[in-house]
C-alpha cells in the first residue's frame, strides 16, 4: 500500500497540534529555553570556571545555544503538520487563520519587549535607529547587518522564526505544485527547494551588496548573507521531514512505546555528543558537529517524544508549565540578566558565586515575568485568535479595539464582498 494514501485515521492526520496530540513537546520547548538561558548566563557572568567531577562546565555552557536549534526543529515539526495533511488529503489549512494564529502567538509579547527596550535606548532616536526599530517590528531586522541581532541579542532568532512562518505556506504550495500533489514527490521537491534557496540568496545578495548602504550589507561576509532565514531553513526542514516521517511511514506508525524510547535515547546520546565535542555556535555551521548532526539529534528527540515514556515525563505539570512560559523566558531573560548583573552584587560575590546566586535570582524574576506575560497577554490573545474566522475578521476587531470603527466597517465590507465573490 502506498504510504501517501493510507487511511487518515491511521495516520492521525489532524490539524490539531496541541499538547494532547504531541505529549512532551512543551517540555522540550521549556528545556530549550533553559539551555539558552544558561548559555547567556555564563557569558554575562564573565565565563567563570565551573569545575565539578573533573569537568569545566563553563565549556559545556558555551555550547548550550543549541537550544535555538531545538526551537527551530520544533517549529518545523509542529507547523508543517497541517500542510502535510493538505498534501495528503487535499484539505489545505486556511491560510488566513494560519496568519492570524501565528501573529497572535509571537507578535504581542515580542512587541512588548521590543517597545520597552527600544524606548529606553538613546540609539533608537536617530534615523538609522528608527529604521532598525521598524525592521524589528516586522521581523526583517536580519536583513540589515547593523541590526541583525536586534535590540536584544536573542531577537535575531525571533526574526528568523517570523520569516519562516511566512515562507512555510509558500514552500509547501510550490513543492506541492512541482510534486503534482503526491506526498513523496512533494517531499523531494521541498528538499530540493530548501537546498537551492540559500545558494540562490547568497548569489543575489553578493550582487546587491556593492549597491546597498554599508549598514545593510557591508561586505560579502555579512551575516545578512551567511546567516539568513534561507540558510536556517535546513534546520526547520529537518523538523518538517520528521513530521512527514511520523505521518507517512507505516513502520513508525507501528512502533511500540519501548521502540520510541530507544529512538529518544539515541537522540539524547546524539544531542549530548554534539554539546560535548562541538565549539561555541558550531551547531549552526556546516561541519562535523553542526549540520546535519545537530539537526538530526534534535529531530530524534522531537519525533520520539510523543510516543515514548520520556514524553510522558516531559509532559509532567512542572515541565508543561515551563513549556507554556518558554517563549516569555526566551524574550525576557536577557533584559533581566543585564539588570541583575548591572548591579553591585555580582562584583561582591565574584564570578563563580555570582553565576549561581545571580543566575538563580535572574531565573526567578524571568519566570515570574514570563508567567505574568503568559497569563495576561499571550494566552488571552491566542484564545482570541482561535475564535477568528480569518484575517479580515481579526483586523476588523483590532480596528474597533483601537477606536477606528469606520475603517473596521470598511474592512468588514471588503471581506464580505471577497467571500461572496468566491
Structure characteristics:
two-stranded antiparallel ribbon, 71% helix, disordered N terminus, mainly alpha, 422 residues, globular
Element layout with pairings:
Elements: H1 8-11, H2 25-44, E1 51-52, E2 55-56, H3 57-61, H4 66-89, H5 95-119, H6 127-137, H7 155-178, H8 183-208, H9 223-226, H10 229-248, H11 250-253, H12 257-277, H13 293-304, H14 309-314, H15 317-324, H16 326-341, H17 345-349, H18 351-386, H19 391-401, H20 405-421
Antiparallel strand pairs: 1-2
Structural commentary:
The structure is a single chain. With 422 residues, the chain is an all-alpha fold. It contains 20 helices and 2 strands. It has helices at 8-11, 25-44, 57-61, 66-89, 95-119, 127-137, 155-178, 183-208, 223-226, 229-248, 250-253, 257-277, 293-304, 309-314, 317-324, 326-341, 345-349, 351-386, 391-401, 405-421, and strands at residues 51-52, 55-56. A two-stranded antiparallel sheet has the order 1-2. Helix 4 (66-89) packs across helix 13, helix 5 runs antiparallel to helix 18 (351-386) and helix 8 runs antiparallel to helix 10. It is globular, with a radius of gyration of 22 Å. The two termini are 37 Å apart.
